[in-house]
Amino acid sequence: MARSKELAPHVGSLSRSRVFAARGLYKGKKTTSQPAAQQAPETIEKSIGGDKNGGKRLVPTTKASRFYPADDVKQPKKSRKTPKPTKLRGSISPGTLESGLLLVTGPFKVNGVPLRRVNQAYVIATSTKINIADVTVDAKINDAYFAKGTTKSKSSAEEEFFEDGKPKSKEPLSGTKLSDQKTIDTSIIAALKKEQFLAKYLKSSWGLSKGQYPHALTF
Questions:
Q1: pLDDT at 1
Q2: Which helix (H) or strand (E) is 118 found in, with range?
Q3: Second label for 14, Cα 20 to 30 Å away, from 30, 57, 84, 108?
Q4: Which stretches within 78-131 are classed as H helix?
């Protein structure tokens, strides 16, 4: 049997958990001849005397407390909200993903914006439109297409702590997404060439001066 050497009065060299693990008593098969305790019923039927009392009654086995709890018992709030489909602004042409997000692209070759999802709250709709009848979007490009992987890196938390604030290395884009980007951009660039200066317009950057407000401008 493992013994813990006493270093000081009532202070042993091994902890209680170490002594318990060393003794190995938990490995032994526990056998008991006592039957399992039966759960007491919630109510018991008792006979009541008197002609007008019905003869029998169901009496609870545990008597309820005579006092209310001092603190209010918090109950979970029932939510009556139901998910509703996203309502598009009138200035945006219909055609979104199932989540209500907009599918946008630069094209990447023109201004570096890749194929991605954007909330309509971060989009400024313009009056300029192009004919994208020849652009075909594969059915696989949906919300699941843009979902991030859940694979964890092998590097430990200690290694990340000693990185001295260096940015994490970005994962390379898969070849399938690169080919999808090129396929869609090729059709859109062909439509942009039909409009004069439209490619340069998408490539140029702009900003607001003092006193200018985006909601008061017509793009």
A1: 47
A2: strand 116-118
A3: 30
A4: 108-111
Are 135 and 184 in contact, with CB atoms under 8 Å apart?
Answer: yes
Q: Residues 119, 120, 122, 124: what is their CA dihedral angle, to the nearest 10 degrees? A: 150
Contact 102, 120 (CB under 8 A): yes
pLDDT computed for residue 153 by the predictor: 59
Q: Show the DSSP H helices in 38-171 as ranges.
A: 108-111, 157-161
Cα–Cα nearest to 123, from 108, 102, 107, 137? 102
110 DSSP 8-state letter = H
The two structure tokens encoding residue 213? 């407000």
Dist CA 33 CA 194 (whole Å):
91
Bridge partners, residue 116, by sequence: 104
- Residue 149 CA to residue 170 CA, distance in Å, equals 13
**Cβ atoms of residues 124 and 92 within 8 Å:** no
* Cβ count near 216 (within 10 Å): 7
What is d(CA 98, CA 142) in angstroms, rounded to the nearest whole number?
A: 8
What pLDDT, in 10s, does the model give residues 129-175? 888 888 888 888 888 988 876 665 556 666 666 666 666 667 777 88
Q: Is 89 helix (H, G, I), strand (E, B) or coil?
A: coil
**Which contacts qualify for 12-19: CB closer than 8 Å, 24 or more apart?**
none
